[in-house]
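Batch manifest line 473
LIGAND: flavin mononucleotide
JOB: complex structure
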Amino acid sequence: MSDPKAEKPTKQWILNAFTMSTPGHLASGLWRHPRNRSSEYTDIEYWTDLAKVLEAGKFHGLFIADVLGHYGVYGGAGNIDRGLPGAAQFPISDPLQVLPIAAMAAVTKHLSFGITASTTYENPFLLARRFATLDHLTKGRVAWNAVTSHLESAARNVGLETQIPHDERYAMADEFLTATYKLWEGSWRDDAVVKDAEARRYTVPGRVRGVDHVGKYFKTAGPLTTEPSLQRTPFIFQAGTSTAGKAFATKHAECMFLAGMTPQSVRKSVDEIRHLATTHGRPRTSIKLIAGILIIVAETDELARAKYEEYLSYADLEGSLTLFGGWTGTDLSLIDDDDDLQFTGPGAIQSLVSSWTATVPGTKNTKWTKARVAQELAIGGAHARAIGSPTTVADVLQTWITEADIDGFNVSYAVNPGDFEDILRWLLPELRRRGVFWETYLAGTTRENYSADGLGPRLREDHPGAQYKWPAE
Ligand SMILES: Cc1cc2nc3c(=O)[nH]c(=O)nc-3n(C[C@H](O)[C@H](O)[C@H](O)COP(=O)(O)O)c2cc1C
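JOB STATUS: finished
ARTIFACT:
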């Protein structure tokens, strides 16, 4: 009989490295910093070296965000120039490329690769084929961040006059995922591929079929041309925050990214997401929830703070305002340099300012000019920050885990891989001492490592894609 007084095992946190295939992901201007290699993002060694660092620390995954256009809000609609000097997520290259992912897979054994791809601009069959190919080459270590895309410039890049309306993009996304589940889960019977040399049969006839998906937005006949991979459906990430976004995410996502500056604000989303999951017939805890955070850690609080200040001296504030424009649709170039945005700024700024004044030391009596706001956004964007010694940072993270009821973190950086190396050196020993971060991976595939439920690499039975599985008879 189990002892009712026995302590529950300590929750094990998820750590994801948050990156993008660009010199200026969430820290415009920092590409110039001598410790930052992000401007080498076009070299395969940049990716393989980063993957090795992350796997040495046993990070769960390397996640690559993506957008399909320039930000084009700050400085007037369509403006290209303001974000260029700081490399504010521009230039950017395609994360869904087999070669760099396969190269990183070749130098690691367990690290997962989360890849962003758009349901608005991709094609379900072609995307299913690319992910299946990568799931093979990585031995089941890919995740798909299924995004609906939010940049006007992306729509124009692919030949549309303007964006498809927000909620309709989510309706398309829902159908897109259904079509890909049919291809991944339903077109090859589990025992279709036998590679039986004596019987001269690679695949058994009758065990591969078309899927004939005909929907409102997409048509695909199938079968998928790629043979079944370990996970079939890649592990699904999502980050929708609107009503339509949350409805979509809580139906399909296996892990969600949450934005928010305070544990209290994120807790509201967490409670809502867990409830919404149950409305789709999924258990409350079936979706792993991870919050974005910038971690700057050093031997002491003073050294960490000094490092952050030194990073800030490289920041390109026009770049931060460019990113802010793209995220919120608000052009701060229209606002006077001297305005106190705490009172006169758009809603998104006022709520950011109130969370900064609540959480960032020494900001209570600040006048929140445009430059000041840009500085707060300059490194790590609109995510929380944990800056300090190993114990300070671990305490901040623990507060988030407890108060926001989340499962882990999407960790951004100012310099790369330097900030991740610092996390390996200073923070991970402290987290392991506290028993909250694993010594090593649980298994080989993404789904097994993130879900940590011992249920194997395939979609869970309560997931909507599971109904398309075609088991051996
Ligand atoms: C941590 C995080 C990472 C995200 N990464 C991307 C990304 O790489 N590409 C993208 O187009 N959108 C990305 N988003 C935006 C979301 O996909 C989504 O559009 C946004 O959260 C707004 O939600 P809504 O579309 O439901 O309004 C990200 C959001 C968060 C919080």
